[in-house]
Design a protein that fits this description.
Number of strands: 0
Order of helices and strands: HHHHHHHHHHHHHHHHHHHHHHHH
Shape: rod-shaped
Helix content: over 70%
Radius of gyration: 54 Å
Number of helices: 24
Largest sheet: none
Distance between the termini: 78 Å
Length: 527
């Protein structure tokens, strides 16, 4: 039995889940809070953070999951850029819970990628690649389902390239760089990404093609000066790396310092500050310029301590980064599990009642069908019986009429015979009178056949279809046999002798292919 407070808590979770699902799985856009924050990030970081937090409060009240996740990720990105990885992770973690509850795969793929970047900043290559690959797998599924464009795949490949480059795994980095270029060509053969071009330029230098590398990086520098100056932090760092590989250390130092200037100017890509401090310290040390070497070494240590040191709040998150999300997910699963159990039990009870109801309906339908079939069969039987009775009655009337004709003919024949024997009567005159009343055999048959056909409409059709060789005389004989006339009655009605009737019956049996023991009258009754 679930206690009332616990039940209310579970219902609240379910209600929140339904509200979140209502806005899930939609493409990312922007909103007024993010637009305002983007305008302030470079110069007034605190104001940018204020607007993003205001957006989070607003969209939480509005139950607008998509914009809420978008603002959380944007704020986490700002914290990431200024090296506040603890707050950055908190934001991504909260966004991931919302995306997971609302089953928003688009948001989850984005957050997995951002977590990959975060682990790259922590220099934990294995964890970083795990999240990047989780994001890539999800994006491939979404692309296959036509929910996102191929550009999202390029973004993921580019992130993996950066991870491998930072960790000096140039073989794998080049492999994913090729994937970037291949995906771009599939979008448009002429499509170019200057972010990808920047990485390409650096890898040309790794391969020893310094002139090509510097030419490519100069092109990307011109592009980012116009479109996204904050990214010049990365471009100048890579240009410094190329000049260092080429042996031109003065040029290298100049570009490293330019990279530092742009990172401080735009409050973005501050992770490259650490890279610049470390490499400048090493160059000055190799040049025996220990003062500058110590200065940049000290800068690197201070920055490293503030991010990853024991007293750093980020250090704590470094150890909690797995457990917090795992524990929260376990709590959510436990609550949802209880809700699902209740739901399954209700579904089981409903299913059981549905099965009983279905069984009753099936039995009722079976009984109804059985009774309906029996009623129709009985009705058909009664109708057939009634039809047969009417037909039999009419056939009896027809037979009686035919017999009356025969009796009339016999009476007239006898009367003529008696008159012929008497001399006192004018026999000729009486013969003429009787002749007028007496029908010819052909006339008798036509009258009989007309009445027979009206009663037994399908008789001639059936017998003709089965036995097409039967002649007119055969058909007449079949009709008389069906009505049960004797040979004498047949001879009188047909105007032929009894012997002729016997002969006709014999021929008819042969045409009908009846065996010796088969009765002709019984056979005709079946037609």
């Amino acid at each position: 039995m679930i206690k009332r407070p616990r039940l209310l808590k579970m219902l609240s979770v379910v209600f929140l889940f339904i509200c979140l699902c209502a806005n899930a799985q939609e493409p990312y856009g922007t909103n007024k809070y993010i637009e305002k924050a983007n305008q302030l990030t470079a110069k007034k970081l605190d104001s940018a953070i204020y607007y993003l937090k205001a957006g989070i409060d607003y969209y939480s009240k509005q139950k607008d999951t998509i914009n809420l996740i978008n603002n959380l990720c944007q704020l986490s990105g700002v914290y990431d850029n200024v090296l506040d990885y603890g707050k950055s992770y908190d934001g991504y973690w909260e966004a991931l819970i919302l995306a997971d509850l609302s089953d928003d795969d688009i948001s989850k793929s984005r957050i997995y990628q951002e977590l990959g970047w975060l682990y790259t900043a922590y220099r934990r290559e294995e964890e970083s690649l795990r999240y990047f690959n989780m994001s890539l797998k999800l994006k491939k599924k979404l692309f296959k389902e036509k929910k996102i464009s191929r550009d999202y795949l390029v973004s993921n490949y580019f992130a993996i390239v950066n991870c491998y480059r930072v960790n000096h795994n140039y073989v794998m980095a080049k492999t994913y760089l090729d994937s970037c270029e291949l995906s771009l060509k599939k979008i448009d053969p002429n499509k170019k990404s200057y972010y990808v071009e920047t990485e390409k330029g650096y890898f040309d230098a790794v391969a020893g093609n310094y002139d090509n590398a510097l030419s490519t990086l100069n092109d990307t520098k011109l592009f980012f000066e116009q479109k996204s100056p904050s990214y010049l932090t990365v471009v100048h760092f890579l240009m410094g790396e190329v000049h260092k590989l080429k042996g031109n250390l003065e040029e290298a130092i100049m570009h490293y310092k330019e990279s530092l200037r742009f990172s401080e100017m735009y409050n973005k890509h501050l992770g490259y500050k650490l890279f610049n401090y470390e490499v400048l310290s090493q160059i000055y040390y190799n040049q025996n310029n220990y003062k500058e070497a110590f200065f940049y070494k000290n800068k690197a240590q201070e920055l490293n301590e503030s991010i990853f040191g024991r007293k750093s709040k980020n250090h704590k998150h470094l150890f909690e980064i797995k457990d917090r999300y795992r524990l929260q997910k376990e709590k959510e699963k436990a609550l949802l599990k209880e809700v699902r159990i209740e739901k399954l039990e209700d579904q089981k009870r409903i299913g059981f009642l549905q099965n009983i109801l279905m069984g009753v309906v099936v039995v009722f339908m079976f009984l109804y069908g059985f009774l309906l079939f029996r009623n129709l069969r009985r009705k058909h039987k009664l109708e057939k019986q009634k039809t047969n009775e009417v037909m039999m009655l009419k056939n009896r009337e027809l037979t009686a009429s035919a017999l009356q004709l025969i009796e009339k003919e016999e009476f007239i024949a006898k009367l003529k015979q008696n008159i012929s024997k008497s001399d006192a009567i004018d026999a000729k005159a009486i013969h003429n009178m009787l002749k007028g009343f007496q029908n010819s055999p052909g006339g008798n048959w036509k009258e009989f056949e007309a009445r027979f056909t009206s009663i037994n409409q399908s008789f001639y059709e059936k017998i003709r279809s089965k036995y097409p060789d039967l002649g007119q005389t055969d058909l007449k004989l079949c009709a008389l046999v069906k009505l049960g006339f004797s040979s004498k009655e047949m001879s009188s009605l047909l105007g032929i002798t009894i012997e002729s009737v016997h002969t006709s019956r014999y021929r008819l049996r042969k045409k009908l292919k009846l065996e010796k023991g088969e009765n002709l009258i019984d056979f005709m009754s079946t037609i």
